[in-house]
Every structure is written in C-alpha cells, then in structure tokens.
Write a structure and sequence with these properties.
- The complex is a heterodimer of chains A (116) and B (114).
- Helices cover 0% and strands 52% of the residues of chain A.
- Chain A is mostly beta strands and 116 residues long.
- Chain B is mainly β.
- In chain B, strands 2, 5, 6, 10, 11 and 12 form a 6-stranded mixed sheet that branches. Chain B has a 4-stranded antiparallel sheet with strand order 3-9-8-7, with no helix packed on it.
- Chain B starts with a strand and ends with a strand.
- Classes of the chains: A mainly beta (116), B mainly beta (114).
- The interface between A and B is medium-sized, with 28 and 25 residues.
Chain lengths: 116, 114
Amino acid sequence: KAGVTQTPRYLIKTRGQQVTLSCSPISGHRSVSWYQQTPGQGLQFLFEYFSETQRNKGNFPGRFSGRQFSNSRSEMNVSTLELGDSALYLCASSPASDGTLTFGYTFGSGTRLTVV
Amino acid sequence: AQSVTQLDSQVPVFEEAPVELRCNYSSSVSVYLFWYVQYPNQGLQLLLKYLSGSTLVKGINGFEAEFNKSQTSFPLRKSSVHISDTAEYFCAVSDTGTASKLTFGTGTRLQVTL
C-alpha cells in the first residue's frame, strides 16, 4: 500500500515568487492536512481538507492557500514568497470521515522549500 | 485553544537504559493525545494515541504512554532503548471537537549512545 506522496521533495524559490506543492494521500483517505515545520516555530497546522472542502484552517496569512481535488489529491500554494516561508511542508492523510482521529494521520516525507 | 509543552529539548541516554520523555498539555476541553517520531529527512510516524478508555497506551517499537488527566500529562516511556530509537519525538494534542487539527509540542531529541 503506497504511503502519502509529496512532490517535489526539494524546492528552491526566489522571494516574491509563488510555489505549488502537491500531496497524494493514501488510497481511500479523504482527509488531507498540511503542516509547516520550521526550527523556530516547530510544527504548525496550515489547513485541512475533506471531500474538497476546507474544514479547518490555522493562523497563517492569506498567501497560504490550498485545495483538494475529487480524487483527494491536494495542493497548497504560497504566493509572494518570503524568506520566512523556508520550511519543511508536511502533508498528512486520514481515512476519517467524521473529523475524529480514530485512525490517526499518516504523514508524508515532506517538501523542503528554501526561499532565497 | 490547546498547547503542548515538552520540557526537554534533548535527552541523552545509553543503549538498553529506560527513558521517559515528558509532555504536558493545556486545554479547556476534552482532548486526544498523540506521540509521533521523526527520523532525519523523513515525515512523522505515529507511535501511539490516546482517545479514550484505558489510560495506559501501548504503541509501536515498545513505546508506551500514560494519560494523567489530573496532571495534564502524557509521558512517553520505553524500558530499554536501542540505537535505532535516536530521533525527534513530538507530543501532540487535538480537541475532540476539531479533531483534525493537531497542536504539537516543540519536540524532544532522543540521543541513544553505546
């Protein structure tokens, strides 16, 4: 059974550019969440999608957005990149249909974004 | 809102020794509790979770944790660690209402040496 796949694994962008990260959840999983991991702030929740709808959102500026497709694959977009956006972006999926974490989340290996 | 405190940023321990990683949480509502492990250049792997019921939870790789509601703690323990347990360990909490949003602690680096 394939795990959570995130592409690309590494990315280097310039300040002011925008970037799109992709996440393919485990087959059958309908909930996808995104987290940002930095040395200074640790792991912070970005947003969660279920059945193509954003169900929860963290405290990030509007430059951070996401979406989920009908096949549950998800993308997150960051516009007008800043140096502080350099981070490991983790995607996690769960089969949960009612928002509970009975089955827990399975995380991908992340996309390492470096903004220069 | 919830918060998680992992007081120890690093814990050095010798192989085959026992270890306890501390975790305290703060929440005004009922919570679910989790421990995740992160190996270098990898994502997070779920070690164990407490949702309800027995306060002693057993997870993978010989780890266990005990939920203490009165002390709002959820320490992770292992009776005998191995070199391969060297990794970053994260405690996380979610409230049972918005269970899809995890709040993580800052992590504890477990360094196992011979």
